[in-house]
Each structure stands twice: as structure tokens, then as C-alpha cells.
Amino acid sequence: MQQVKIYTASPSDLSPPVQSESFCVDLVLASDYRELEAKCAALVVENGALKKSEVEFNEYCRRECEDVGDTWEDDFTETPATDAFLAEVRAQAHKEGAYFVANRMLAAWDAGFIDDTAKNAADIARMILTSTEFMADAPEGDFDRSFADGVLEGIAAQLRKGVQS
Predict the structure, then answer these.
(1) DSSP state of 21
(2) Radius of gyration of the chain (CA)
(3) Backbone dihedral angles phi then psi of residue 4, each to the nearest 5 degrees
(4) In the predicted structure, residue 2 carries a pLDDT above the cut 70
(5) 23, 11 contact by CB (below 8 A)
(6) This prediction's pTM
């Protein structure tokens, strides 16, 4: 494995120079840092796959034990660092999803596909963007589309009913 080179800088080497002899700073190249982040992300993906296979193996063993009248005690490997990293990845993906939705909605409004006032379009976009502030505390169920699908079905039913009247 390639070692990351750590550079030590004295206060006079910094930009702007610091007038002090009482400390030094350890630095790494940004490219080395990005490479380490990429390796960390790859390890997390591998750990996620291993955790999934562990769950599948436990389910297989439980079924086999139950088939012969025995019991199986699940034994899962704890991976708090992987779990925390994956939670960060999910949180970032949720935020990026909200940004994507706001961008798409505003692009559709700007192109004339949404017939509404500029104020309403801006209010909706701000609401979508502000939703990112509440995502960290939202339950996992808030991130599936079942609620939206249900509301859309209700709206479609109302529209059909209105057409029939």
C-alpha cells in the first residue's frame, strides 16, 4: 500500500507567514487526501456487501435449523464505522435529491410547463430546499414514495370525478 507523505511546515512557510516559532503544521497533498477518501469509500462498499451476505447466511442457517427442529441465534458483526459512513452517504444523497427536485421543478416552471406565479414557484422551491434541514431527524419511511403515490392517486380520483360531473 502506498504511504501518504506528510509534510511539516514551519510558521514562516505558511501563506501568509505566521510570526511564531511555537508550532508546526503537518500537511498532506490534496490528491493524497482524495485518494484516501476513495479507498475509504471502496472499503465501505465492500463492507456493505459483506454485511448483506452475512444477513443472507444467517437467514439460510435459521431456515436449515428450523427444518430439523433446532433454533438459530443470529450473530451479526458490528460495523459502527461502516454504518456511520453509510449514514453520511445516505444523508448527502437525500440532500442532493432535494436539490435535484428543486432544480427540475424550477426548470419546468421556467420553460413554461408549470402554469403558476413566480412567487408560488419560488415558495415551492424554497420549501423543497429547506426540507434538507429536517432530513437528519426524519424517519427512514419519509424517504420512500408511498405517501406521494397515495396523494397523487387521490388527486387523480378527484380529477376523474370532476370530469364525470
Answers:
(1) S
(2) 26
(3) -85, 130
(4) no
(5) yes
(6) 0.57
